[in-house]
Amino acid sequence: MKRSFAPHLLAAIVVVTAGCSSTDPGNNPGPAADLSSCTATNTMPVTLAVGDYQIVDALHQASCLSLPGSGDAAEYVMIPYSGYGVSTNDGTSASYALQSALKASASGRTSSLVADLGAPLSSYAGNTAPTTPASFEHTLRMAERRLAASGGVQIGAAIVQRAIPPAVGDRDSFNVCATSDCSSFNKIGATVKYAGNPGVIYLDDHQLAGADAFTGEDIQQFGLLFDNYLYATDTTAFGRESDINGDGHISILMTPAVNQLTTDCTQGRIIGYTFSNDLIPFARGSNAREMFYTVTTSPATAKCKAVTHTGAINVLPATLIHELQHMISFNQHVLLRGSFDQDVWMNEGLSHFAEELGWRTVPASECTTAVGGDCFSEFAGGDVGNAYAYLNDTESNYLVAPESGDGTLPERGAAWLFIRWIADHFSADSVLGTQFTRAMEQTTGVGAKRVSEITGVDFPTLVGEWQLANWTGDLPGFPQTSLLNYRSWNFRHTFANNFPSVFAKIFPLTPDSTTGGYGHAGTLRAGSGRTVRYKVAAGSPGVTVRLAGSAAGGALSTLIMPYIAIVRVQ
């Protein structure tokens, strides 16, 4: 079932800036390009009916395309993009230029260049991007990949020491990250306040002075939500977590140590995390058990608002369902199968997909006290906000993000959108996507290669179809019968429903638009590209388009696997 409503989305969205401006060079046609290198022998004619599309390998098929002229007007959407899917430390990117001109008219003269440009891109409504929490989590995921690659990690079902299941009132001590890179640890004491199955909630024995304390009802409510819904949703979608100490439980430590990881909340706040270092008993700082760490209540500081007891309980469910996917992923890939951990971009995308699943599986009655008063705001709002940020500036953001980068929120939006689209079309249950998500995690395969194995389609083709779907999904007048849509969402309605209260535009993706002449030079990043509309007028001689490595016509980089996706929309 498609979802198009979001009545209280503002409350849940993490605000970011897309980094685009109205002076973007793609928003003018540029100088007339010399397309003499596009000859009759090396130019591929594009003949499409409305709704049809084509994926062109710019290196091995053609880098010059010919859009036909006719007596009827036609509109095409073209996306030059990188089909490269291998996760690398620094990311994979290269320069490119997309250029076009009207073909010579029957008289032999070249028609004048006319540009019908779309509205300039405007930035996503909000404040500075909250990169600190994203960078922190990215750091943890990279540390886990190093652990997985270090050897000697596989434990399987082996239990180092069988622990006694904890009970309310039990005390224990824990190592907690002292810095945002978890390079050092502090020891704290905590007491069990909730003992469920499998969740056990510990509260740090030293709470911050002046904080709005949790009530017993708060902690009970949170523990039952985790046990009854969040855990069931994630383990159904991705598989089981490990149990390295044999107590059959997952510890949730609520501690001021997490609050103190963020000293300046103007760029966002770290709410909670899991670190698979805890699943390696011999690792320095390991607590040798399955664990989450979350914020507790805290008073306001100069640069951070207070965390109230209701505020914490409202933001923690989405955090835990997200982090539990990371815990499961490490177990499935590394501990059970002795493989590498999931690629970071895919790992984050699956965790954001888990947040969406929270909206779809947690009963509405469990979210009535959340900010916004509904499960959509509590679980899916952040995903939609990240997706908006990506679609608002696709060229500047990766799908296959660099492992050494910050794991930006727009890139997380891209990963979530891609996984959502794959689940829609390549899973037996297209809404929950369980067939796909379990196949991604219960395996030694990772990243783009595993996606291709599951779908039976090469990754560059999937990327091109997905990029087109970001524009054609629920586009008025466009047939919604192919892969070029989202089956479970109507994003056009979702964004429009939150305009202008949340979003600066009715729809974030704003293609450049032209009737023939066009020129833009930029950078193609792995899995991403730029969207351009070609409105070929009735009686037009047609349009010649060239994808090159530079505005001067330089060779395309083989490294980025350059492709062109094109669809006829009218």
Task: Describe the protein in words.
This protein is of the alpha+beta class and 570 residues long. Helix content is 29%, strand content 17%. It contains eleven helices and 16 strands. It has a six-stranded mixed beta sheet with strand order 6-7-8-9-11-10. A five-stranded mixed beta sheet has the order 1-3-15-5-13, with no helix packed on it. Strands 2-16-4-14-12 form a five-stranded mixed beta sheet, covered by helices on one side. Strand 6 and strand 7 form a beta hairpin. Helix 2 crosses helix 5, helix 4 packs across helix 5 and helix 5 packs antiparallel against helix 6. The longest helix is centred in the middle third of the chain and has 27 residues. The chain is elongated. The relative contact order is 0.24.
Topology, please?
Layout: E1 43-45, E2 53-57, E3 64-68, E4 74-82, E5 93-102, H1 131-149, E6 171-177, E7 185-195, E8 199-204, H2 216-238, E9 250-254, H3 256-259, E10 272-273, E11 291-294, H4 309-335, H5 344-361, H6 375-391, H7 409-426, H8 434-441, H9 447-455, H10 459-472, H11 491-497, E12 512-514, E13 518-525, E14 532-536, E15 542-548, E16 562-568
Parallel strand pairs: 1-3, 8-9, 9-11, 12-14
Antiparallel strand pairs: 2-16, 3-15, 4-14, 4-16, 5-13, 5-15, 6-7, 7-8, 10-11
